[in-house]
Structures are given as structure tokens and as C-alpha cells.
Amino acid sequence: MKKLFLFLLLFCFSFSGFSQIVKDSVLSRKMDKYRDLTISVPASYSKDSKKTYPLLVLLDGDYLFDAFNGALSYGNYWDDLPETIIVGLHQNGNNERYDDCKIDESTGLPEGKGEKFFEFIGGELLPYIQSKYRVGNFKIIAGHDVTAGFMNLFLYKDQPLFNAYINLSPELSTEMEVRIADRLSAQKENIFYYLSSADGDIKKMRENIALLDTNIKSVSNPNLNYKYDEIKGASHYSLVLYSIPNALYQFFASYKPISTDEFQQKIVKLESGYVDYLKNKYEVLEKTIGIKMPIRVNDFKAIEAAILKNKAYGEFEQLAQLSSKSYPKAMLSEYHMARYYEFNGDMKRAVKSYQNAFSLEPIGDLTKDMMLAKADELRGQIKK
């Protein structure tokens, strides 16, 4: 099973999803040198000049970029993960990455080149990316071992630059096991934190990570979204391939369309409020990760099915109001109103709504022929 998983993930590395891969560099005046970048620009980027995207900044971009880009491309293909701007920062092997992440052992804070690198990310790299690309409010940073430990320093700021942190077997600096938990406890905005290790990880790092996990689990903060993975049968390096999709699906859980399990376990069991559930799902998406999007047609279909199954026909009127906002030129709203009238016994108005739907744009599996057929079917039921 694990071998199959690794094969599929490696396969998806080559799946570009039509995103554009750009090589770039940014001049760091703090470090007095150019820093190389690999950037993945979403496929839809040029189609909508107002659309913004989540940002994922990768330390150790030399080897993490392909893994993250492949997972995001594959997830987006199935509409499980959103398109994301990915910025991989090259660190050219261990010498540069250790220089970048230099920390004072007594204080646990960046020093020397490490301090300059810290200031470069916040004061030069992020402003450069934000000036060049349409970056939304949701920003993720990820790293592996020494870079994962280093990126946690951004949590120490009163207003962290990133909303979400992907820690792949982090090498934790002085008192970080305690400080991170304290900082996560103090966050007043939504904060996402993913942490992973493996049973084959480096022993000292694994012990420190386990202590950090214990401390974070004691945090009581409704704004914290936290997950820890201890991956069985993996090493310090192979855990990366297991962790990446787990972290992404954790952070973007609110993005996923309504699944069969969600429908059966949550929606259909409600006594009422099916339309409210749908509205809330997309409001949470916008609030937590800053993505505002039309409600998916299939999600409308799921709510329609719940209404029919529970005979809550009055909610079709609310559903029509919601579908009109998402698809004002399509026939979906008139179709929902027709269903409302039909199940309330007003066949004349139902026929009229089906006829109105015929003049609008087809959407999903709703067609003009279907609207005419429904109108003809109900016309015969109208009492003269």
C-alpha cells in the first residue's frame, strides 16, 4: 500500500495541471546577493484579472518544489485543492541552508546570516512576490528539518507573516518546544499548524518533536487548526512524501466539494437548514483561507437531494435565492423556483418557471430540452 502511494505521488510530480513554471531571482540587499526562485503560476491566472490565490513559500525549494507542485496540481485536477501560487526558494545545498538558518544557541533567535535571511523573507521576498502576483490573504510556509525549525521564528512576531506552517521533521532550536505552543495559544486569528515525524526519524529530533506535539495538544485556542502525523515505516527523508498531501488536505479542508460521506453523515441527518449549511460552508471557506468562489453546481445538487429526501420542499425558495447570486445568467435559480412551486401544488407557476429557465443558459445537467419537458409534463396537471 505504501509503495503504491509513493508511486502515485511520484507520478503526479510530472502532472503540471497546465500551471506555468517560472524561473526568477530577487535581489536581496540584506544579503547582498541574488536569490534564485522557482515559481508555479496557476493555470487560471491570466483568465481572471481580479482573482487572488493562496501563497505557498517553500524553504528548501530545491527539492520540495516538485513534491508540493505535484500534489497541488493533482488535488486541483479533482477540485479537492485550490490553485495556489508556489514560490520555491533555492538554498543550494547544506552549506547555504545552514548559513541561512543560523541561530544563536543561547537565545534560540536568528543571528548573523540567519538574521539577514529572516529579514530577507519578510522584508524583501514577500513584498517582491506580492507586488508581482495577485496573492490573497492566506499564506503558507513550509520547510524540512533545519529550515522547518527556522521558519517557526515567524510565529514569534506579534503579527505573524504567515497563516499556516508545514513542519516536516523540524530541527527545533532552544526552547522552541515551549515557545511555539505559547505563540499558538496567543493567536487571535485563524492559524494552521502541521507537524510530522516518523518512526525512522532522527532520534533526537523525534524526541523534541514529540514534546512539541504534547505541548501544542495542551493549547486551548479555537483559532488553532493543528495536526500531528507520526508516519510509520518512513525515514527522515521519505516522510516528506507522506506529509505533504496530509498537510495540504488539512489546511484546505474547507475547500473540498461536498463528498458522499459529508452528505450522508452531516447534511442528510439535519432536520432542517440545508441551505444554511451550504451558505455556511462557503462563508467558512472565505473566512479561513480567503477564497471567495461561486458555489459549485454539484454542491447545489447535493442540497437539492437532501431537501427531496427529507421533504423540506419549502427550502427550494431559499435555494433559488442562493443560486441566483452564484449563477445569475443560468437556469439554476428558475429551476429551483419551479421545484418549489411544483411541490407546493402551484402548477401554473411551476410551468412558468420552467419556461423562464428555458430562456436562460444551461448549467450542469440542466438543459433546455429538460425544462420544456418538465413544463409540458406539469401543464397536463393544471386543472381547467
Automatic annotation (TrEMBL):
It comes from the Bacteria. TPR repeats lie at residues 331-364. PROSITE patterns: TPR (PS50005). SUPFAM superfamilies: alpha/beta-Hydrolases (SSF53474). The keyword Kinase applies. Keywords: Kinase, Signal, TPR repeat, Transferase. Pfam families: Esterase. The keyword Transferase applies. One of its GO terms (molecular function) is kinase activity. Residues 1-19 form the signal peptide. This is Histidine kinase. It comes from Flavobacterium aquatile LMG 4008 = ATCC 11947. The lineage of its organism: Bacteria, Pseudomonadati, Bacteroidota, Flavobacteriia, Flavobacteriales.
